[in-house]
Every structure is written in C-alpha cells, then in structure tokens.
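Team,

Forwarding the record for the chain on the shared tracking sheet. I've put the sequence and predicted structure together so nobody has to dig through attachments.
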Amino acid sequence: MYQRIRDLREDRDLTQTQIAKILNMSQTGYSQYEIGKNDIPTKILIELSEFYNTSVDYLLGLTNEIKPYKRNK
C-alpha cells in the first residue's frame, strides 16, 4: 500500500509537502505513511482515494483496478 500512495503522488508530480497540506498534516507525518513506519488511518485512506480518484481497495493492494467504484454519498 505504501508504494502505491507514493507512486500516485509521484505520477502527478506532487511533493510530500503538497499532499500533507491537502491532508492538513505535517510533511513528516505524511512521509511516515509512505515509508510504512505508521499505519494510515481510515480517514486518511478515504481522503487519498478521493483525491486520487481511486478506491481504498486499490490503495490497500486488494485490487489492481485503479478505477474507483461508484461512491455512495
């Protein structure tokens, strides 16, 4: 999962600082997610999946289908 969030960020030419700002957290805190030092809270996984327009299942490595499911809102 950690490699996927890094790859998604890098594919969009974004920095850790930019993503951390979107998530309202520090760059250091976010970097801990990318290296796998800290588990990613559910709330952050949902925010990342919405930002990257993918599913939480994709972020978690449960599917290789990057296209998101239809969301309930």
